[in-house]
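Possible regression after last week's pipeline update?

I re-ran a chain I had predicted before the update to compare outputs. Posting the input and the new output here so someone can diff against the archived version. Not blocking, just want to make sure nothing changed silently.
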Amino acid sequence: SKLFELLLGRTQLLPKTDAIRVLSRYVEAFWKSTGARISASPDGGPVSGVPAAHPRMAAAVDELRKLAPDDLEVLEGIARISFDFGDPKMAEAAYGELLDKAKEGLSRPERATALYRRGESARRAGDLANAVTYLRDAADLDPNSPLALDALGKIYEKESKWEDLVRIKRS
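New output (post-update):
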């Protein structure tokens, strides 16, 4: 990521497509270099110890959003990287933006994945009410994927909603 930092101040001089490519790669390299891949806490509660957004990385994401505000591939990349390596609140917001802007631009499985990741991010951040909504929507869109149901199970277990937990385990 240090090599990309040298280019950050010069992206305005690059053609738009090159600037988007450089900024996208910088954001990905930054999160990968932190070595802090997100994992849910064992009790299903909020994740702690997530590195705060570095000012340069935040500036790169902001610049990316300015350069390609409606580019679904760029938005999906920001959301994916935030989910895999970033702050859960940032990931939830990124997936929210992607879902809002994509409208009908996502296939059913892509929409289900985005909703799952938004819900899982909300769960990791401790926003269980919104997490349940997003995860239920994801499970409805893709009933064959166990990811949303597993995340819902963690929430129901944490909240001692045993009937709900049993219901999703049977489905």
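Follow-up from reviewer: compared with the archived run. The chain has nine helices and no strands. Marking as no regression found.
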